[in-house]
Fold these 4 entries.
Entry 1:
Amino acid sequence: MHVIIDMNAYKDFFLCRRMAVMVTALWAWLGAGAQESASVFSFLNLPTSAYAVSLGGQGSAAIENDASLVMSNPALMMSVEDKAINLNFTTYLQGMKLGSANYVQPHGDLGSWGVSAQFLSYGSAKETDELGNVLGSFTPIDLMLAGGYCRMLGERWSAGAMGKFIYSGYGSKSSLALAIDVGLNYYNEDKGTSLSLTGRNIGVQLKAFGDHRERLPLNIELGFSQRLPNTPLTFHVTLSDLNHWNAKDFSPLGEEVNFGKMFINHIIIGAELRLAKIIRVSIGYNFRRAYELKAAGSSHGAGLALGAGVYLKKFNFAFSWAKYHVSTSTLAFSAQYNL
């Protein structure tokens, strides 16, 4: 009797088991010591690309020739086929503008490297003293600069990391921080399956606004994408913010939240349909955003996101719609050119 062993399957099983061990270890560590929501640099968790917005806010397991996905998972640099320049712009809340720029350059077997920048401008604000006297005006801004590297660990595994320099300036007050994003991705092209584990904004505040340093918005995510066989349809599921399991983090009005509600509020789902290979239509739903907006009095479009794009060989353009606030909707636009 001859026993034939598929070495690729064996390696995949071994790496999947290693990934499961990593998830379990992260779960235990985060559950023990990371129960509070961060209150500084929260702009880092805002999606900046139209594609990510249209999938509910994240795309950590989406395999696409889209350089903006490095903001969701640095391991996805390997899915960028050529030198790519990517620009994104989002109309956020009234008077606020969110944007980012990304560049990714593959280096064959050596891997890929990339740089990114992100900003959130709050518009002009009046500066006053403690008595309310107007002293002038200032422009609050959040800024992030990043650089990183990704390489293949095997036929189907890739890992990447992005180092971040973060700055916030609000009039005479400012803050500085350093952070890193790390990501691991498994992709089986034949089966259309992608699985990712990502840790974003792991770092420390170097300079605080006041006397006390605050936590960065650490976000641990587990992402899954599956293309249905012989169809142009792909489904995405993301478990986001896995480092927060305190009921207070999910209760904007102070009401009691059970474990089931907390678990649902970690889920983001999305789906995309590819038409004629160059047109893509996508939809997403963010359960936590829907819960918080409905609690604040908004029921129309709460948690829902829609998007579409045209993806050509050298150029792609996408736009999306979502609702992040009860008073207004968010529009995101992205463009990429492959050199």
Entry 2:
Amino acid sequence: MYNPKSSNADEFINNDEVLETLKFAKENKNNTELITKIIEKAKQKKGLSHREASVLLACEDKTVINEVFHLAKEIKEDFYGNRIVLFAPLYLSNYCINGCVYCPYHAKNKHIPRKKMTQDDIKNEVIALQDMGHKRLAIEAGEDPVNNPIEYILESIKTIYSINHKNGAIRRVNVNIAATTVENYKKLHEAGIGTYILFQETYNKKSYEKLHPTGPKHDYNYHTEAMDRAMQGGIDDVGLGVLFGLHGYDYEFTALLMHAEHLEAVYGVGPHTISVPRIRKADDIDPSSFENGLDDETFKKIVALIRISVPYTGMIVSTRESKEVRKQVLELGISQISGGSKTSVGGYYKPEKEDENSSQFEVNDNRTLDEVVNWLMKSGYVPSFCTACYGSGRTGERFMEFCKNQQIHNFCHPNAIVTLKEYLIDYASEKTKITGEKLIKQEIEKISDEKIKQSVINDLDKIEQGIRNLKF
């Protein structure tokens, strides 16, 4: 039986409820009266239920789709403004004992080089990332209790936070590692992580078990209930995501929203972020062998509908996507992107040789961080390296309270401007500096509150004087 308040994955991601929702959506995709009511509800910017959103996903009326796109853009601007947060992934180890058929790190792959960074390796990688200008990382590691135990992850986090190089420092470490115990989540929380991220891969239980034939990840319920254990361990910022292409996109979309509703119902706090990766080519992985590939137009529609259904969440798109696709989805609700990314173990400090490639997937946007920053600014966005909410304790329920009331940008817009100034002075090319200084002047003029405006101006002066990591 479907029960969003249950702690059992079979109940809060109930297969019958998903199928009934898809049936309802198909039957009502041309129901003009119902669709109009759903759109009107969406305009209140309080979100949609999984069933309401699924009707819009099924609808093929171009007028409705265009209205969804317009509303998604409006909601993103109301909740997050024109800021785009930047981050980079850092792969610690690709040793893994799972048999995931879509990932080149699967245990049976004897071709890909197996690598694990030492703490000295991590230090070199972090310094290279700091020299690029990054302040926020997402660490990744395969599941292997021998090579990648929780102690190794915790030591690596400590190392990352300890490194101060020139004006560089990593101020927020998000963690994307395998589902674990409440006790281990407590340890991660005590280590000062930002968001705990775990992709569901697919919410369809039969497909999930087939795609994960061996290893601890085979346990669907243990994996799907991981966010509950993370919350119980004190981590109040969690990030959801599915790997689109493994199962039918409509099933995944519906279940993803059900998972967000479950977290809201039980903990009063929905997902801090939602990621929307699509399956990509990798060492021994051919995306065309999967039957559920997602075309760009449907992908855009899904991004827009997640934005209007879960308006408070941060939405992430990585360098899996091309520059062109990233530009399109930025307009439909994306608020975080990676830049200058490497998806191999190492590679920032010293590029890998071709025969030593340990990448998890092929990157489709190979631009440097500076190029991405310049591109964002020319596209009308403010690149943000801000971690002030994390540093000031505005996480979990407190963050959601501000965000749902559309007040978070009162903090984030000033902090985005200040952290952009840091980047321009410390890391940017001359071309990017010129573009950035012009943008900062324009953004300051948009601040209507004179007290906030003067505070930003004062902080910009302090940045010029060499002071760093200011928080509004």
Entry 3:
Amino acid sequence: MNEENFHIAINQSKIPLLVLDNKWHRLFAVHGKPDNVSGLEQEIKDLLAHQGQLNNDLKSLKKIKNQLMENIVSNMGDSEEVEVEDTDKEMAKDKRLIEETNAKMEAIEDELLEIPRDLDHKNKDLMFETMGYCYNHLRTNKREAEEIDAWIKDIRIKLKKNIIRKQNRIINNKEMYSYMHDIFGRDVLDLFDVRYEDFEEKASEEKSSDEKKSDGKNSNEEKSEEKRKEES
């Protein structure tokens, strides 16, 4: 589909007002809304708020107009000659106010006709920005998922190889120990077992001691370095 046909098809599509859809907000739950999306969202909210205010103003003007009409009808029914002049003035004032009210109502109604079109344009813009955001993350997530999958496959291969190596080492030790037992006998082997256990324990203790000394030395060196920096 070429670009022109794509935009024609999009413009013919009915898109719900996104800012009122909770699922639309959930699209940005992980990474948050980018500035361009937040900006359009605020513009649409402002339009909706303005639309609501205009509707309220229109209702108020209709009430005022009805009250003025009632005043005129009431004044037309007044038969007191003494009040004729005052009544005419009141009726003229009410008629003028009705004309002003009609003009305000007409202006509001014209503006209310424009707002749905403005909302539709802004909503379409927000849709395009949303789609751009979503497809960007879809591509990123797909690429990272493929990289992780490749890493998992590589780790599985290495894991299988290391499992085989571990099993070979265990089997080799069992065979070697069995041959040593057959050659030298249980008594001799027990003596060497005790000797090498003591040797390994001592080596382990020495290693632990060396590590503690090394940690202490590194810690002292770090403290000396910090002190030198403070003095300088």
Entry 4:
Amino acid sequence: MKENDQFILDIKRMGINGEGIGFYNKLAIFVDGAIPGEGHDVVITKCENKMAYAKSVAIKSVSKARVEAKCPHYEECGGCQVMHVNYDDMLKFKRDILIEALNRYTRLETKAFEIKATIPSENQFGYRNKSLLPVKKIGQTTKVCMMKSNSNMLVPINDCLITNPIINELNTKILAIVDELNISSYMPKFNRGILRYLMIRVNEKNEALVCFVCYERNNRIKELAKRVIELEHVKSVYENFNTSKKQGVLLGDETNHLEGSEYIIETLGNIKYQIYPTTFFQLNSKQAKNMYDIILKSCKLSLKERVLDAYCGVGAIGLYIAKMAKEVIGIEYNKESIVAANENSKLNKIKNAKFYQGDAQSLLPKMIKDGITFDVVVCDPPRTGLGKDFIEALLNSNIKRIVYASCNPATLAKDLEILSEKYKVNSITPIDMFPQTAHVETVCLLSLK
């Protein structure tokens, strides 16, 4: 097989990035926009050792799961991958993506434990509570943009359908003031310009926190802040300085409070969380509560257990489950997050949760060596997974239960393959945290064999 070869390909399953996957002489071929069950006339665009990539020229047989995408930017914008798939079918595909990862990376018998149906999101659109987008001058008007899929090209966006409508409204109003004040937007080609990104976060009470991510310092940003704090919904305004030449770096190290409150408060259940510009918090608040309820139920707490909340962030999960535990100890590498976690603990008057700064991979073995034991471990690691040292510490710990929240089926599967030496997988629950995208969140319950 070589580039520009053309043939009919049957799509058998969905890939982890939402692409369709078919097979030609056992070679996996990835096709953007294709849905399992369809037949596509494809042209090969790239060949590698064990896989190939193709573009669809025509759909020869159309899946009943195919729908027309509602977003006018969908073909260009890289933010969503599966808006062309019926929602109920996409929930099934997300469960299939999880099962495929388990079959590929583990020797687990997936029929030996329960893999539940994907938990749907109450809101399929307008669910994102945070926007952090690059800005660009288009003619005489500054616009927020998304990065075009598989490129560095910025695509101007008027309204993002998966983002809270208040954020879309504020983006437009704020950038109109930016143009009035003649504040330039950052130009990567020349490394010049003032405003680089615009961040807006909104809580369930529709209160907004705004942060201007700047490349250059300019006093007009303070004038902008004074104007923006007067807008409806805005309660807090910050500036952040990002002078990195790397495109993937969104925020710099320096953040300054300019106007209004220092934070906004988000509430999940009975727990309140202080949200700052740099705070990590789940982007779909309603679905986050559903996930935390599943985690709490999986922990099987009876007020007697000591729980380790590994990769705890701002203490979101640890504080949520503390009411049913004897004690919660959280570990997080990021210092700012630990400060926020302890602030959130005080805010909620929770006295049985303590949070420590450090690397979970090294702190857990030290705690065990010092005689600190745990009954349950809750872990919600980054996409890269738990880490070799942390898994080894778990295998040497004899902890009764592990509740593993994952945002990456591939790394979850790889970690489960190692943990299965000593732990039994009881159940896995896929959760649709990000409708219209291919991302799958899961909560996995393991128990000591």
